[in-house]
Design brief:
Blueprint lengths: L3 H11 L5 H5 L13 H11 L3 H10 L2 H10 L7 H8 L5 H10 L7 H9 L4 H17 L5 H5 L2 H7 L5 H15 L3 H15 L4 H14 L2 H8 L1
Helix pairs in contact: 3-5, 4-5, 5-7, 7-9, 8-9, 9-12, 12-13, 12-14, 13-14
């Protein structure tokens, strides 16, 4: 039986006291961290199993590893929109945002609605979460109709001018992943990228040109066709 105390004890044992400078080089800048690797966190999450109460308690500690672990062990059926909205306030660096979206939020029944809602937010981390959800859903939701992703394209164009690093990288990610979902969406995404490239914005040009490099690559097109 795991509790907060036993989990923190294990994280300390798994941690690397000299790892904070290393993770900072990747833009991972939590106020507090044990510097445990993601593979090790996944192994610990498997050992713990799903536990909603423990997830909430771990999140409240505010440590990098306890928050990522919380996203891995939480029970999506018990997660409320209020909880998700509260957790987004802690998205101050890209890793915690992406891990929460990948491990938990994309599985929630409101993921498409929240992707649209969060894409309109002013806060950098929350806006990023909206586009990370779009990118992740394009990969993971195999049964969704292409039309669900077509609705995201105007949002991508709207926010491509955002110069903030966390946002423009996520906008670009969403555009690329949607464009790789099917040949129909590929054509639409390429046309959109070409439109975005014409916008008088350094960020928009980067979003568009970087996406086009991948989407117009022969290997990418062959992979989509398969």
């Amino acid at each position: 039986m795991h509790n907060v105390k036993s989990v923190v004890k294990k994280l300390k044992l798994l941690g690397n006291s000299k790892g904070k400078e290393a993770i900072a080089r990747y833009g991972i800048t939590p106020e507090e961290a044990f510097c445990v690797s993601i593979p090790n966190l996944r192994e610990l999450a498997k050992e713990i199993g799903k536990d909603h109460k423990l997830a909430l308690e771990l999140w409240d500690l505010g440590i990098r590893e306890t928050r990522i672990l919380a996203s891995m062990i939480d029970e999506v059926s018990l997660v409320t929109v209020k909880q998700m909205e509260e957790w987004t306030k802690g998205f101050t660096y890209w890793e915690i945002c992406d891990q929460c979206c990948m491990n938990l939020f994309e599985k929630h029944e409101t993921s498409y609605v929240l992707a649209e809602k969060w894409s309109k937010k002013k806060e950098e981390g929350i806006k990023r979460a909206g586009f990370v959800l779009m990118a992740r859903l394009a990969v993971s939701d195999k049964k969704a109709d292409d039309k669900r992703f077509e609705k995201f394209l105007p949002m991508i164009k709207r926010e491509a001018v955002d110069e903030r690093h966390l946002v423009k990288k996520a906008v670009n990610w969403a555009l690329r992943q949607i464009g790789k979902r099917s040949m129909a969406l590929h054509k639409t995404a390429v046309l959109l990228a070409q439109e975005i490239a014409e916008i008088d914005s350094k960020s928009a040009r980067w979003v568009a040109n970087d996406a086009l490099r991948e989407l117009e690559n022969d290997k990418t097109i062959k992979r989509i066709k398969r």
